Amino acid sequence: MLDIAIIGGGPAGLSAGLYTTRGGAKNVVMFERGMPGGQITGSSEIENYPGVKDVLSGFDFMQPWQEQCFRFGLKSEQVNVERVAKKGEHFAIHTDNGDFEARAVIVCTGGSPKRSGVAGEDKYYGRGISTCATCDGFFYKGQHVGVLGGGDTALEEALYLSEICEKVTLFHRRNEFRAAPVTVAKAQSKENIVFKTPTIIDEFLGDSKGLTGIRYTHKDTNQQETLELNGFFVFIGYDVNNQILLQEDGSFLCEMSKFGEVIVDLNMKTNVPGLFVAGDLRIDAAKQVVCAAGDGARAALSALAYLEHHK
Ligand code: FAD
Ligand code: NAP
Q1: How many whole angstroms separate alpha carbon 37 and alpha carbon 63?
Q2: How far is it, in rounded angstroms, from Cα 129 to Cα 124?
Q3: What is the pLDDT averaged over residues 37-44?
Q4: Contact, 267 vs 302, CB < 8 A?
Q5: Which residues, in sequence order, are bridge partners of residue 130?
Q6: Active site residue 96
Q7: Is there a contact between 108 and 16 (Cβ–Cβ < 8 Å)?
Q8: 47: pLDDT strictly greater than 90
Q9: Distance 223 CA to ligand 1 centre (A)
């Protein structure tokens, strides 16, 4: 029987791991299906974490977090969690590698990049279409790539790509951007970033080798055009990873918002005693590393108090 199971090893999960183990919990396991670090490891840079002056890649930034946790006794399982369910007073953690039981659970499964659903996307995904500039930008060194989206991710990654690629053409369905104005201004000042707004991507085009370009429509004029491109990056937000809370009868283990986020209070408590949720999966998440880390710490303190009162 685990004292605490932490699901997900992003900033929220790793902070929860640090605070639970350093707070005295003895048998804490973090379940992570990939490499710890979370979605920020796919980002080319992070420069807004308080106290860290250097601009680091997301991967480099997250590297010390796990080492710090393991120093205080956090154990980890690299495995996909299928479902968390109630089992009597406790919780059952169903994984691809067997079942575990835990007295308390902190779920920190974050989110995953959204796909556009445009014709040809599945066909050329991984063969010219990507959702990670850090991973794949280098493949298009000196070439022409497209970017879809108008949020912080699209604009920041367009800037990153503009340093590697000869030209970046950014497509967005509106003339206004969700991204921070300072980031938009920075992108607009780059000579090799071209903005195409308001536009809709109609189809990704390609041949047997992969993506060759796109067909798109200007919304103002309804004029359709094709553009040859070497690569294309889709940055249109992401879905919360709430599937592990889905029960066999189709209901969720705890209360959820209409957007599929978990409803928690300021202590990261769900409506199920002993179940805590932290980070991008929760309602009203600011979707920032520093906030996810704060959530993870708060959830850990709540879980420790829960165990103390349910000995
Ligand atoms: P995540 O980071 O999503 O971590 C969740 C973890 O859970 C993942 O490692 C995942 O593999 C794991 N997981 C999911 N499901 C399962 C399962 N079933 N079983 C086991 N493991 C599972 N924020 C900033 O503050 N500054 C930035 O500059 C910044 N840049 C960003 C750039 C990009 C490209 C993106 C996408 C986001 C950026 N963000 C930035 C936002 C930030 O990355 C997130 O807010 C933060 O990572 C959320 O942390 P989290 O721990 O809640 O979730
Ligand atoms: P986002 O803020 O949700 O923006 C998604 C963008 O994609 C929007 O501009 C949206 O258009 C567009 N879009 C959505 N679906 C589309 C579709 N099917 N076809 C075409 N366009 C579509 O997502 P994000 O940029 O990934 O950011 C996610 C969160 O992480 C945000 O809270 C963001 O602030 C945060 N983040 C922060 C930083 C930072 O602080 N440095 C960096 C990256 C991300 P509309 O605007 O028209 O809806």
Answers
A1: 7
A2: 6
A3: 85
A4: yes
A5: 233
A6: no
A7: yes
A8: no
A9: 38
Stated pTM of the model: 0.79
Whether residue 6 contacts residue 58, with contact meaning beta carbons closer than 8 Å, is answered with no
Query: Which residues, in sequence order, are CB contacts of 12 under 8 Å at separation 6+?
Result: 38, 108, 110, 278, 279, 280, 281, 292, 293, 295, 296, 299
State the residue for tokens 């009203």. 284
CB-count exposure of residue 131 (10 Å: 0-12, 13-18, 19+)? buried
Across 257-270, average pLDDT: 95
First to last CA, the chain: 13
Complete domains list, the chain, with CATH: 2-112+238-309 (3.50.50.60), 115-234 (3.50.50.60)
110 alpha carbon, closest ligand: 1
153 alpha carbon – ligand 1 mean position (Å): 13
Q: The tokens 């503009």 sit on which residue?
A: 162
Mind listing the pLDDT tens digit for each residue in 266-300? Answer: 999 999 999 999 999 999 998 889 999 999 999 99
Residues in the ligand 1 pocket, defined by CB under 6 Å: 7-13, 31-34, 38-40, 42-43, 46, 48, 80-81, 108-111, 153, 241, 244, 279-280, 287-290, 292
Q: Which ligand is nearest to the CA of 201?
A: 2
Residue 215's Cβ-side half-sphere holds a number of Cα atoms within 13 Å equal to 10
Residue 230 and residue 178: Cα distance in Å, rounded?
Answer: 26
Residue at token pair 């607009």: 188
Amino acid at 184: V
Does residue 311 have a pLDDT over 90? Answer: no
